[in-house]
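Re: that chain you flagged

S.,

Sorry for the slow reply, it's been a week of failed gels. I finally had a moment to sit down with the sequence you sent. For the record, here it is as I used it:
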Amino acid sequence: MGGANPDDLPGFAPDAAAEQLADRMGIKITDTTPDRVVGTMPVAGNRQPYGLLHGGANAVLAETLGSMSAALSVGLDRATMGLELTCTHHRAALEGEVTGVATPVHVGRSTATVEIVITDSAGRRTCTARLTCIVRDKPPG
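Prediction finished late last night. Pasting the structure tokens below so you have them in one place:
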């Protein structure tokens, strides 16, 4: 993983590392910079009853990448928390893995908005998401 280490993110709680939803979903972060965060997630284990990748799994991937992107964009002295997430599902992913790329759209004093594009193994867009985070001073401690 390039760029910042998730342990460096404001408010990161190492003692909660074993409880991370991203780990349970099989999400792997493959690249991190202030301008782009990339991660993958397997379709297997994240399907809905019809055998398709669950839309909620797309949302988990989008919020994971978008939150990390927002945190890296505002700097290590600020903290971000999700405010709104929207996902548009364009096509089904049936197998393999999906890849998400999170890119900041707006980084301001009080909010940060990130676009997350999710594609299937063939490079076809399966979901477009937008996450808006509130930006606050880093919690003391």
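What I noticed first: Helices lie at 21-25, 55-74.

Talk soon,
D.
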